[in-house]
Amino acid sequence: MEDEKKEKEKVEQEQTIENKSSFIHLKKFHFIMLLFLIVFLSVGITAVALSWGDDKVVTVAGSERTEFNKLYDTFDTLKNKYYTKTNDQKLINGAINGMVEALDDPYSDYMSKEEAKNFQSTISSSFEGIGAEIQEKDGHIVIVSPIKGSPAEKAGLKPNDIVLSVDGKTLQGKNSTQAVMMIRGKKGTKVELSIKRPGNENPLTVPIVRDEIPIETVYGEMVEKDIAKVQITSFSTNTSKELADTLNNLQKKGMKGIVLDLRQNPGGLLDQAVRISSMFVPNGKVIVKEEDRSGKITEIKSENDGNPDFPIVVLIDKGSASASEILASAVKESAGIPLVGEKSFGKGTVQTTADFKDGSNIKYTIAKWLTPNGNWIHKKGIEPDVKVELPEYATLSIIDPDKALSKSNASAEVQTAQKMLKAIGYDPGRTDGFFDEKTKEAVMAFQKANKLKADGVLKGDSTIKLMEQLREKIQKNDTQLNKAVEVLKDRMK
C-alpha cells in the first residue's frame, strides 16, 4: 500500500510539472505576440506622426549617409528644444557656412544670395564700394590690394593692412565675404575702417567715402618716346580685350617696348590670365599647370602667336596676387621676360563656384596652380629678377583727417606727418613724433603754399592735401618703374 501511494504521488507530481511547463510555454507565446503588437503599433504611430505631425524631424535620404546623423540630430534638438523658436533656413545656412569654414581655407566661402550677387559684380562692369581686394588670412581680414584710382587707394590703404572693424563693428570671426558686405555700400556714403598696419603699434582710423568702382582694368601711356607703360589692375571679364585695344593704340603712337605693370593687382579670372599670357608666350609653351586632389597635373599651353616683336619687362610687388602671379610666372619661365620690383603676394590656388537654386553658392578651391617649371608659389610669392623697392616715404601710413595734430602733440601720426612734410620739401626739423615750433612752421608754410588756413594745425583739408601731394611725388619718383625702363632699354638695343 505504501508503495502504491508513493507511485500515485509521483504520477501527480509529474502531471503538475507538465501542466506548469505548458503554462510557461503559453505565457512565453503570449508575451512574444504582445511585443510584436507593440512594435507594430509603434511603427504605425511613428509613420502617422511623420506624415501629419507639425514638427517633422529631419530624415536622412538613404540609410548609407550615416555621417549626417549627428548633424540631423543637432538640427532636430535645436528646432524642438531651443528656448526660442529657430529659423530653419538660418540654421541650415549656418551649418553650410561652418562646413566651409572648417576647410581652414581663406579662399573658400559660403555666400548668401545677396553676397553671391555682390561677388559677381566685382568681375562685371562696375560696383559701389571702396575699391579694395580683401582676403581672410591667419584669422584676420587683410587688404590684398586697392584698385587703381579707387577711394581705398586715395585714402592710403596698402597691401597687408589688417581691417579690425567697420564703423565700429568688429570683423573678428568674419570671413572675407561677410567683411565685403559690411564694407560695401551706396555711392556717396561714408564708411570708417579701423586699420592695423604692420610696423605701427596703434590702429589707424580711416574714413572713406564710397564711390562707383568702374571695372576698367587696363591703363596705357607713353612714358618715353618709344616706351609705353601698360598697367593691368585686375583680371575681369573684358581685360584681355581691353589690353589688345590698348596695345594697338600705343603701337600707333610709336611704342617699341612695353613695361607691363602688375603691381597692386589682386588677380581675378583665370581664363583672362591665360588669354593675356598667350599674347606674350610662344605657341605651344606652358602657361600654367593645375594639380587636382589626386595629384593629376594638367598643362595649359599658349594657343596664340605670342612672343611679340617688341621687348617687354614686367613689374610686380607684394600686392601682385593670384592671376597676376600666373601671368608673371608664365612670361618669366616660358618667354624669358624679366620681372622687376618686389616679391609677389603668393596665392597658388584655383577656385570655382557651385550655385544653389535659391541664388546662394559656395566658392571653393579645386586645385593648386603651378608655374610652367612646376613651382608652387603659395605663401612664398615670386622673386623678381631685379629687386627694387620704393622710397621709404612711399610706405608711410595714412593720417586720420579728423584728428588734429598741433604743437606739443607727440604720437606716431605726428611722426608720419613730419616724414611726409620732409618728403615734399617742407623741413619739420625733426621726425621723432614730437610736434614742436619748427614742425608748426613747416605746416604753416605748407598751408600757405596751398592756399589753406595757415594755423599750423594739421587737420581736415590740410591732412588730405598733404597725403595727395605725397602720392603725386611717389608717382613722379617711381623707382621701380624707372628701373624697369632701364632694363627694357638694354633689351631694346
Outline of the structure:
It contains 13 helices and 19 strands. By secondary structure, it is an alpha+beta fold. The model is unreliable at 1-29 and 31-57 (pLDDT under 50).
Percentage of residues in DSSP E strands: 15-25%
Count of helical stretches: 13
Main sheet characteristics: 6 strands, antiparallel
Task: Determine Rg (CA atoms, Å).
Answer: 35 Å
First-to-last CA distance:
143 Å
Number of strands: 19
Q: Bin the helical content.
A: 25-40%
* Uncertain regions spanning at least 5 consecutive residues: 1-29, 31-57
Class computed from helices, strands and strand pairing: alpha+beta
Report the mean per-residue pLDDT as an integer: 85
Question: Judging from the principal axes of the Cα atoms, what is the shape?
Answer: flat
